[in-house]
Amino acid sequence: MTDLRDPNGDENDSAIPRRAAARTAKLASLPLGMAGRAVGGWGRRLTGQSAQDVNAVLSAKAAEQLFEVLGTLKGGAMKFGQALSVFEAAIPDDMAAPYREALTKLQAAAPPMPAKQTHRVLAEQLGRSWSSRFAEFDDDPAASASIGQVHRAVWHDGREVAVKVQYPGADEALRSDLRQLQRFSRLFQSLAPGAEVKPLLAELSDRMNEELDYRAEAGNQREFASAFDGDEHVLIPRVVASAPKVIVTEWVTGTPLARIIADGSAEERDHIGTRLAEFHFSSPERAHLLHADPHPGNFMRTGDGRLCVIDFGGVARLPDGIPRYLGQMTRLALDGRSTELMSLLREAGFVRSGTELAAEDVLAYLAPFTEPLAGEHFHFTRRWMQKQAGRVGDTRGQDFRTGRSLNLPPEYLMIHRVTAGSTGILCQLDATIPARSIVEEWQPGFAD
């Protein structure tokens, strides 16, 4: 622990490169660098190197640059990288390894800001005597996030706490990054074929103000903590104190989900995957909220086997829970009832008036997504997710044309993305879980 009254670090250092021109230049280097490497790779192909060897080198270098740029920029760039990381499971195995490593790093890595700058933010947010509220405070960050970093400390009453401090300039950086990233959405789509990159960026922009306001995040976390208080399977750390750019919560020690993905046993993967699915499907009913930032950096496994959930900056408010329509549609697709499914899709706004679609084509498009619910247990694998991403992304196939003809009403957008993200994590975990019983219990309309 460091002396709270002896700060160190250069006062002029900045946690986030704040000049718009500098940030734009870094982001622009991604497509330029990839294009340059593609030309170089073509040259090496002419000299006799195999396509497989050349592509492996290009993928590794592109991934390295992706991590370096998105990770060091933090802000919207890093948040976008974290959101993309859950779709890593959809990337074909022969080109996934370097992206897997780089995108996974983005879930928890970023350069720290200097201690003196951290102290300055704490003084602005908690008052000049902020240090008196802590018995101890570790100046070295224990973890980092897209717009802030987390310090381990001891509250004045002896409780171990996590102190999340927002980077100065995070608001400016977030806005600048998201504007620039939208210009390169086609490039990023090729890196994550399982993700809908354009709407993902639009949603991140819409949620920007929520992400920046730690008081709102604290309110969300309090609601989740209340809903899951005493739960045997899920732990939500309690909020101790909050301000617009600082939030103090109870400290929880656990095994990061990324580590379980990397080297956890089959039993650990199945166990935590089940807890994740239960949390995802039960939250709208229990808390009337949906945790809207599903990436492995936001989940841990505690020593007693519970799923610890952190970071509530982005949530979907669902006062009536998950719409019953979704459960009904899922069951109709699972049962192969194409005519009834088509009628319900039109009624709920998933098929626009005047759009001509064959009921059997729509069933063929949607039914494979219900495979996890066909039996008592389902094994979520990267191969399964790659198959689904390839099927709906094949521009020559009927499923691609059907998918483009369907409409996703705005009120379902976040639910759809969070479900896709949670499914991506289950595939990264390679988990076998009782998906059907979880959906039957918590998804209105499915068991009707």
Care to describe what's here?
It is built from 19 helices and 14 strands. It has helices at 20-46, 51-73, 75-85, 93-105, 115-126, 170-183, 185-191, 197-206, 208-212, 214-227, 257-263, 266-286, 324-335, 338-348, 359-366, 382-393, 398-405, 410-429, 435-442; strands at residues 134-137, 143-144, 148-155, 160-166, 234-235, 239-243, 246-250, 254-256, 289-291, 299-302, 307-309, 315-317, 378-379, 432-433. The model is unreliable at 1-14, 30-59 and 191-195 (pLDDT under 50). The strands form four sheets. Strands 1, 2, 3, 4, 6 and 7 form a six-stranded antiparallel beta sheet that branches. It has a four-stranded mixed beta sheet with strand order 5-11-10-8. It is an alpha+beta fold. It has two domains: 1-212, no CATH class; 324-442, no CATH class. It comes from Amycolatopsis antarctica. Keywords: ATP-binding, Nucleotide-binding, Transferase. InterPro entries: ABC1_dom, ADCK3_dom, Atypical_kinase_ADCK, Kinase-like_dom_sf.
Biggest sheet record = 6 strands, antiparallel
Number of helices: 19
Which spans have pLDDT < 50 for at least 5 consecutive residues? 1-14, 30-59, 191-195
**Coarse structural class:** alpha+beta
Radius of gyration: 23 Å
Helix residue percentage: 40-55%
Report how far the terminal alpha carbons are from each other. 57 Å
SS strand fraction: 5-15%
Mean pLDDT metric: 79
How many domains, as an integer?
2
Number of DSSP strand runs: 14
* Inertia-based shape: globular
List the helices and strands and how they pair.
Layout: H1 20-46, H2 51-73, H3 75-85, H4 93-105, H5 115-126, E1 134-137, E2 143-144, E3 148-155, E4 160-166, H6 170-183, H7 185-191, H8 197-206, H9 208-212, H10 214-227, E5 234-235, E6 239-243, E7 246-250, E8 254-256, H11 257-263, H12 266-286, E9 289-291, E10 299-302, E11 307-309, E12 315-317, H13 324-335, H14 338-348, H15 359-366, E13 378-379, H16 382-393, H17 398-405, H18 410-429, E14 432-433, H19 435-442
